[in-house]
Design goal:
alpha+beta; 4 helices; 37% helix
Length: 187
């Protein structure tokens, strides 16, 4: 009889017997010995059945070793492919992200706003998170910027990531003027 999914119920008794007579490491004895107090001796016909069940298993150690080695190599190749694909995905994502980032360049004399990074327990929704305006007094390499406050004339040295350009007040011009007449309601 070939072992497959249809005949599992026929082998259930053998599996139960094998479980009861097998040595268990945590309890240092078989469940049969724990219940009955003595080791289980198999009958000759059961030993013969066990011998044939073991013989059905693949006991050619050289073939098994080679097959297992091939499986491990295949798993290693799959893992290497996964790492390579992840690296390519990260590079593409990084390049896409870097293309979208707007570069900020500051020059001496520009007006800027400074991000106010103090901890606020209850921040307001419509309150601006930037303070200023400040004037750029010096630009250092690698993104450091020295700014001067217009109100107090204090000098701060901050990173360029905390700054954003200050746009002077925009003036709205009237391009067209249309006079509306009073509506006439009919009774």
């Amino acid at each position: 009889m070939q072992p497959n999914r249809r005949d599992w119920s026929l082998r259930l008794g053998d599996a139960l017997w094998a479980f009861q007579t097998a040595y268990k490491s945590p309890i240092r004895m078989s469940p049969h010995r724990m219940i009955y107090g003595k080791t289980c001796h198999l009958l000759v016909e059961l030993e013969h059945k066990a011998f044939w069940a073991i013989k059905q298993c693949n006991m050619d150690y050289d073939a098994v070793r080679i097959a297992r080695k091939l499986q491990l190599q295949e798993l290693e190749e799959i893992l290497n492919d996964a790492y390579e694909n992840a690296r390519i995905y990260k590079e593409k994502t990084k390049s896409l992200h870097n293309r979208v980032i707007a570069r900020k360049e500051f020059h001496v004399g520009d007006k800027v706003l400074l991000y106010h990074s103090r901890l606020k327990l209850f921040p307001r929704k419509l309150r601006s998170r930037s303070i200023g305006p400040f004037v750029v007094s010096n630009v250092f390499p690698y993104g450091a910027v020295e700014i001067t406050s217009l109100e107090t004339n204090k000098v701060f040295k901050v990173t360029g990531h905390r700054l954003k350009p200050f746009c002077e007040g925009w003036k709205a011009e009237i391009t067209a003027f249309v006079e509306l007449a009073e509506p006439i309601y009919e009774a």
